[in-house]
Amino acid sequence: MPETLPIDGNEAAARSAYALSEVIAIYPITPASNMGEWCDDQAAKGAKNIWGSVPAVVELQSEAGAAGAAHGAVTGGALTATFTASQGLLLKIPVLYKIAGELSPFVAHVAARSLATHALSIFGDHSDVMAARGAGLAMLASGSVQEAHDLAAVAHLAALESRIPFLHFFDGFRTSHEVHKIETLGEDDFRALVDEPAVRRLRARALDPERPALKGSSQNPDVFFQGREAANPFYFDCPEKTQAVMDRFAKRTGRAYRLFDYYGHPEAQRVIMLMGSGAGAAQEAADAINARGGRVGVLQVRLYRPFCAPALLRALPRTVRAVAALDRCKEPGAPGEPLFLDVATALQEAWAGGQTPWARMPRAINGRYGLASKEFTPAMAAAVFAELARGEPQPRFTVGIKDDVTRLSLDYESEFSTEAPETTRAVFFGLGADGTVGANKNTIKIIAQHSDLHAQGYFVYDSKKSGSLTVSHLRFGPKPIRSTYLIRQAQFVACHAPQLLERVDVLGLAAPGGTFLLNTSEPEKAFANLPREAQLALIDKKLAFYAIDAYILARAAGLGPRINTVMQVCFFEITKLLPGYLELVKAAIRKTYGGKSEELVERNFRVVEQALRHLRRVEVPARPDATRRRGVELPGSAPEFVRNFTRELMAGRGDELPVG
Amino acid sequence: MPETLPIDGNEAAARSAYALSEVIAIYPITPASNMGEWCDDQAAKGAKNIWGSVPAVVELQSEAGAAGAAHGAVTGGALTATFTASQGLLLKIPVLYKIAGELSPFVAHVAARSLATHALSIFGDHSDVMAARGAGLAMLASGSVQEAHDLAAVAHLAALESRIPFLHFFDGFRTSHEVHKIETLGEDDFRALVDEPAVRRLRARALDPERPALKGSSQNPDVFFQGREAANPFYFDCPEKTQAVMDRFAKRTGRAYRLFDYYGHPEAQRVIMLMGSGAGAAQEAADAINARGGRVGVLQVRLYRPFCAPALLRALPRTVRAVAALDRCKEPGAPGEPLFLDVATALQEAWAGGQTPWARMPRAINGRYGLASKEFTPAMAAAVFAELARGEPQPRFTVGIKDDVTRLSLDYESEFSTEAPETTRAVFFGLGADGTVGANKNTIKIIAQHSDLHAQGYFVYDSKKSGSLTVSHLRFGPKPIRSTYLIRQAQFVACHAPQLLERVDVLGLAAPGGTFLLNTSEPEKAFANLPREAQLALIDKKLAFYAIDAYILARAAGLGPRINTVMQVCFFEITKLLPGYLELVKAAIRKTYGGKSEELVERNFRVVEQALRHLRRVEVPARPDATRRRGVELPGSAPEFVRNFTRELMAGRGDELPVG
Q1: In sequence order, what are the beta bridge partners of B456?
Q2: What is the pLDDT of residues B605-619, one digit of tens each?
Q3: Which pTM was predicted?
Q4: Chain B partners within 8 Å of A123 (Cβ)
Q5: What's the rounded Cα separation, in Å, for the pair B566 and B612?
Q6: Out of B137, B220, B342, whose CB is closest to A463?
Q7: pLDDT at A128 over 70
């Protein structure tokens, strides 16, 4: 049955893959691991795909092995999927050339992640999928959790019908780990959408000792080239077949997708083209600019391969004068990043062919953004639109950083905001593994299930995992949420570990007039104990200040250091987001702990009541009285590099460091 | 000392790599293996690089291991090289991203080979190097054996000076295995060209426990993007530094190269752009067309990465109206092949920027050619020039095959020939491992050393190696030879195994008025024993026909089945290419066998004399008398696929099979 569920992008994609696969070959790599884990878990529970069988979920010895297993499975006529990212995808490339060369329709779902270059990073960008773009797979890009679910299904269906294997990808972390309330597809939907004759044709093509056929031979110069060209018709037909699947999908679900989705002013003069989660931020910027009389738009690329230039040109407004292709990757030495080269070529050919509605050739410029999950905000998109308005726009640029070396970066107004006033934004500072993230996911689940509010949660960890900073960014609102970036102005800020205030600018994210909730062992001295900067922020921003000693309450209830229930109750109590939340929190507690022990349930119930009793509003005086300042203490002997560079990282200001 | 040597492209590149390296990490893969083998052999003999040390030539457990070893070596401050191709290059890609990301100047020499897709092929095209183009290496393309030697050196020198690692590539087989008389660089040349301060800077950057430094860390979203952009200045400077190295090289050697080398009419309207060995064939076509009043040219891409669009635009004639970018690879689903996307983008930006001399935007079209060593001839290049002259040229095409499915292929006049009349062309049909190829290489060596003639040899094997057909294509002439394609009209054709006449159209390659030499056990019945088609060819083409029983002579001299000396002597005797050849052949025999036994030398001397005595001119009657026809006998029960397809392959007509 279709359901409304708050899940992350990995689960969203995995659900479609699981329903439509018989063999799932996996090997874990961040940030894609959860897709394999979810499927493995489902198979262990005996969950069935839409044909009534439990998919074989097989973990191999490496990603190369997973690719080899997938190759064998699909060649044997099985509906096959795999999941991967980054270097894992690189290890699969040799086999992907084979699978595509043999027109075997399997699907790889990729939580796109940067490749290790000057440094390794587990975070998200498109370097990995771009490194695989020569292999001959169709490539479909999702920009949100809902899309990761929907287009995962489209990828499986279109692969089956076109015989082209699909690589379906979405942004690592930003989409793979964002929790979002989405509409899921039910078994009936999948059944209605799948092309059963295509399934039978796949099985009929299977290698079979009863019907011997030759595949994957060694060919010499005499016939190899001809054999390679024989695949052309399949690639030529793939875009149309993919659009046909999307149209069927829209009819069934009401959610419509196109190969290139245009959003914005119908007579836009300036257009940003991009793929993945950045589209959400760019669309918000376009709305804001158009609301002020601008004429801009966003062209979101969904089917990146096979690249259908006529569809791109049809989707572009006839009025366009300048386009910016934004690439979330960097291929040093290339004349432009991959998407830009495709776009510029499409413009060149259309213009030289004389079949365009344009008065003059549109300018095309190329920007890099968002490498390794660097933020991409509406402010940055607005900077790109502003650049496009210039007579001589910068042909190559970066956005989101300050490049003081090659001066490619665009400046952007960090104050530019498109946050909807009706959306509640809450940010929680915690320590890795302290339960903050789990509690927030639980909060989203409760709100998603018991209200009509849309809900989004994104969780910033650093790669060191346990023990370091986590920041949870939650949005709730009556309208769909497409803000694919971190919250910068939260009406509610909570700090679950008071020592964080000593080194991080926690209240920098508080919106004026908002609320600050602090867990502290001395609630009565909550204000006095703050560093001077935090006191000033409370005063200047006129924040309502609440404090509670969650540690002592949790300990008293026998819950040890697990302060999550206390803090969750305080959040609900202060924000009043959900009437009757108390019963829902208790029901959640019963659901979580009921299977374990009644005693544990009681303890949590007790702590809920204690939380409400001890939560206190703290008076904020008119003037600060602290002399202690926030900051990282370094020994005087620290070398210059540590003082200028490492200290900034430790203070959470790495984003502001320039290239130099 | 600089020398004039007849060597193949692999040895040509390996010689430069060896002279300029301290660590050479290898793993064998066709067609690049010989580079590693040559270096291994040199190191075993104690040969020194220009710094007076014997390079460490280390064979690893796979190409991934070779890349890892190279990464470690260059990080440790060693001048480092590796050799590879095809899937071997794919296995190196993850490490190449690292090496480039860390700006470590090593060099990979690649004998470019197709990647396994619908079928595996050991033959040459650019699929492999294109699959690696995202990694951030500079990429330098050689189109001939001389260039493979020269640009291998340029790659090492430019890497050192720019800090960008280089991938230097040339066409597998066509260049890697072509034997060509070239000018080699001497130790003094290398010493004069190398930038010693840059060597010292490389060593100073080495990881060293005495001077600890951090490399290859894990970075989070805060600083990864900035770190990635810090490499920009090195990439921006690389083209200029590479040109500076080329200029120094030209001053020293007289051989001049540019990032983009233009050849042809200074006011060309139609230009072909390509890289690798195809440039030779395209240049010949351009000469022929310009000689008839055409205005065409060829732009040979040497520095493909970093791609320097301004240098490309400067190299293009201002008069250009249409360009064809030819790619020796296929990336299904891409809007165009890699080189074309770069070229079309350069045109788009130049035009939209309003800084071009053109009256209108040039048309740009894109063709694929030469996949898996498919022939690329002047006739095919002429077909591309003809396509460019059409009002509405086909935007995407193939050339060199007949595509009856998607009809992308251009027709070409197979009669179009640009062979120089002063060049002697000789073709030898033999069986794998029968000594024919070895004898021909020896012939080239003798001629190269003892005359001013230019010399080229190319050897067509199929991948099954021993026992199947080999065809040796030899050219000798007073002018430089840039014919990077097989001979179609040979003045001299030899057949070293008479049974080949029964299934292969040996005399199809004979030029009218030429000579045919046949090894047969019945020289007196030489004509009568021929199949009817061969008799007709001898008569129609008015060929001079010679026969000898080389088998019996070799056996009588105690040489067993080794007929190579007999056939070599006959070739020299008939063609009169080299006055006084007899002493040279004998000297070569003494050099080859002298170390083994005087007895063996004597036997070979004897066989030389016997050959001259028994070589006989065969009368060719006016009419054929044979009824037996050439052809592959198939059992009547053979299935249709075998009759229509396999039979054609067996008859050596696979090239003519269409895509369908």
Answers
A1: B180, B475
A2: 999 999 999 999 999
A3: 0.95
A4: 220-221, 224
A5: 8
A6: B220
A7: yes
